[in-house]
């Protein structure tokens, strides 16, 4: 349930409303927009409380929210959430690009790629230190050493860093070295992990499960939000369908649908969404046209020999740089800003 008040309602009246709600043992979530203030009630609301709130000074309306995801719902939070990470604004007017390898392989590799991401105009360095693999004998990542390597590369080149966390036990160590924590598709409904991430103050990029509905996806985000962490991004990374030509089917409709249902930033992953290098650029542009707040794109200096075997979906550095130059032209057409370096040709030579 939400209580709606005008943005010009005196603060004293807002606090009176909050006190009445909290006396009933309910949690309160306040969202202040330009035109109205929305006070969310979390818990079981008695009809008598709803009637009482309707009669209070400053209250314009009391509305019951039927969605199971309260905090993630746009009804609860009408304005877009903007997440600020070291000066990078995610969910606002800037198109954010996260680029880098599937996995951190060694210090030289991640340092070189970080320099290329920065030179091309990317703002975030991606790289996995712990890798969830289908087969137990596949490369499982460089672990904590990889976290340290990526943190050093990000600091050196002035990039925000993002890495995947796989278990609740690794949340604290990943949060110590990375700026954004990623939840992979296999862990979207790892509720113990989501609860733990709700306790951290680090932003979380939550990837959609490869068979998850929108409701299931947003309810997974709700676990993190309900734990006290408001900084959640939703990532469409492709779903599993009957089609075998692509690794997954990138659900472009998820971008506007999620933005309609939720206030959280929406990121697109065209690399995993297609699994084919030649499709990454067109699906990146399609994602921007659909309204994505950002992209997470795999790029590797030697993708055909990457340790994870995902090289087939990784761009070469010149392809990555060329794509970002195209995004600089495309972004303003959909109301986004994106400025690449003035002379990116240096990394193409």
How would you briefly describe this protein structure?
The protein is an alpha/beta fold and 349 residues long. The protein is 34% helix and 18% strand. Residues 343-349 have low confidence and may be disordered.
Provide key terms for this protein.
single chain; alpha/beta; Alpha-Beta Plaits; TIM Barrel; eight-stranded parallel beta barrel; four-stranded antiparallel beta sheet; 14 strands; disordered C terminus
Termini gap: 58 Å
Radius of gyration: 21 Å
- State the fourth-level CATH superfamily of the largest domain: Aldolase class I
Strand composition percent? 15-25%
Give helix % range: 25-40%
Which residues sit in consecutive blocks of at least 5 with pLDDT less than 50? 343-349
CATH architecture of the largest domain: Alpha-Beta Barrel
Count up the domains.
2
Strand-helix topology:
Elements lengths: L1 E5 L4 H13 L3 E6 L3 E7 L4 H8 L4 E5 L19 E3 L2 E3 L5 E5 L6 H14 L3 E3 L16 H15 L2 E5 L6 H7 L2 E4 L7 H7 L6 E4 L6 H13 L5 E5 L17 H8 L4 E3 L1 H5 L2 H14 L3 E5 L18 H14 L19
Parallel strand pairs: 7-8, 7-14, 8-9, 9-10, 10-11, 11-12, 12-13, 13-14
Antiparallel strand pairs: 1-3, 1-4, 2-3, 5-6
Describe this structure in words.
With 349 residues, the chain is α/β, with parallel strands linked by helices. The protein folds into 2 domains: 2-63, Phospho-2-dehydro-3-deoxyheptonate aldolase, domain 1 (Alpha-Beta Plaits, 2-Layer Sandwich), CATH 3.30.70; 83-347, Alpha-Beta Barrel (TIM Barrel), CATH 3.20.20.70. Helices cover 34% and strands 18% of the residues. It has an 8-stranded parallel barrel with strand order 7-8-9-10-11-12-13-14, surrounded by 6 helices. α3 packs parallel to α4 (143-157). The longest helix has 15 residues, at 143-157. It is elongated. The termini are far apart. 45% of the residues are buried. The model is unreliable at 343-349 (pLDDT under 50).
């Amino acid at each position: 349930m939400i209580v709606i008040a005008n943005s010009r309602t005196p603060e004293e009246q807002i606090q009176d409303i909050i006190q009445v709600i909290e006396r009933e043992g309910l949690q309160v979530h306040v969202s202040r927009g330009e035109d109205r203030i929305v006070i969310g009630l979390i818990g079981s609301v008695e009809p008598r409380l709803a009637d009482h709130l309707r009669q209070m000074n400053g209250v314009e309306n009391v509305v019951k929210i039927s969605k199971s995801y309260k905090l993630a719902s746009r009804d609860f939070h009408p304005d877009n959430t903007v997440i600020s990470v070291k000066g990078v604004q995610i969910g606002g007017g800037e198109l954010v690009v996260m680029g880098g390898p599937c996995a951190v392989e060694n210090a030289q590799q991640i340092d070189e790629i970080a320099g290329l991401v920065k030179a091309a105009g990317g703002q975030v360095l991606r790289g996995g230190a712990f890798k969830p693999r289908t087969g137990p004998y596949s490369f499982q990542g460089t672990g904590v050493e990889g976290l340290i390597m990526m943190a050093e590369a990000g600091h050196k080149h002035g990039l925000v860093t993002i890495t995947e966390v796989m278990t609740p036990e690794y949340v604290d160590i990943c949060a110590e070295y990375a700026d954004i924590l990623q939840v992979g598709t296999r862990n979207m409904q790892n509720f113990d992990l989501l609860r733990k991430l709700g306790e951290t103050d680090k932003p979380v990029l939550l990837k959609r499960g490869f068979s998850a509905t929108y409701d299931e996806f947003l309810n997974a985000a709700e676990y993190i939000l309900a734990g006290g962490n408001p900084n959640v991004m939703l990532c469409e990374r492709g779903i599993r369908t009957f089609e075998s030509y692509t690794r997954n089917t990138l659900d472009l409709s998820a971008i506007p649908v999620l933005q309609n249902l939720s206030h959280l930033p929406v990121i697109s992953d065209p690399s995993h969404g297609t699994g084919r290098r030649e499709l990454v650029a067109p699906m990146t542009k399609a994602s921007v046209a659909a309204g994505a707040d950002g992209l997470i794109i795999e790029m590797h200096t030697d993708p055909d020999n990457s340790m994870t075997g995902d090289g087939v979906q990784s761009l070469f550095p010149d392809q990555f740089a060329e794509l970002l130059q195209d995004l600089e032209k495309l972004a303003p057409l959909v109301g986004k800003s994106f400025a690449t370096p003035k002379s990116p040709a240096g990394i193409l030579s």
